[in-house]
Amino acid sequence: MQKIIRCKVTEIQDHGEQLYSIFLKPESPAPPFLPGQYLSLALDEYSPGGAWPESRAFSIASATAERRLLRITYAVKGRFSARMEAGLRLGSPVWVKMPFGEFTINPNRDACMLAGGTGVTAFTAFLAGLSATYPHHIHLFYGARRPGQLIYRPLVEVAAQRCPGLQVRYYAEQDFEGTDCQPGRIEVETVFRSIPEPLSLAYYLAGPPEMIQTLTVALTRRGLPTGQVIAEAWE
User: What is the total count of domains within the chain?
Assistant: First the structure.
């Protein structure tokens, strides 16, 4: 069941190129949520019992145990995110309705996560909760325009050090020379070459709609049934 909470902006991280992370402190602890779920963020005042204001959905990037501080990450792409960039300051009040969504990793089988840009936030809570004894193999392919935009790489690397079953590959479309990033975008051909028995995994896709569409078509053409390809599209 969703809960509506008034929050205060406690930190704004400017990652450059209109890419931001926002930390929100709820006035009361946020309700329990599952890794991969999302919240609805409203900038305008909400009156209890009234209509929910204009809002936008964001994956909850913080760990599920961190219910007293919520993190979201966004890129400025439209009118609502432009309002966020222009209007949000430290101490700004916002309203949150959460949790929503069923984009959760099945813990009973091996999985492959394909993340583009801020789409990785659909996976960060899951990665933060991975234990050293997680019984299945997890493959993460994480791409961005430039290596510096792989802003959750520190979290990913801590998870990979803790959990031997997590294998990670990074991609960058630009400025990849001299880095450990693979050049270009994530492609199913290279994914399949990197994974033993690739048809046995569940595939989770999160990123720009164009990426989701391209990878979904490519995966289904490889013979994967639709139930084995799960997508969380965002704009």
Answer: 2
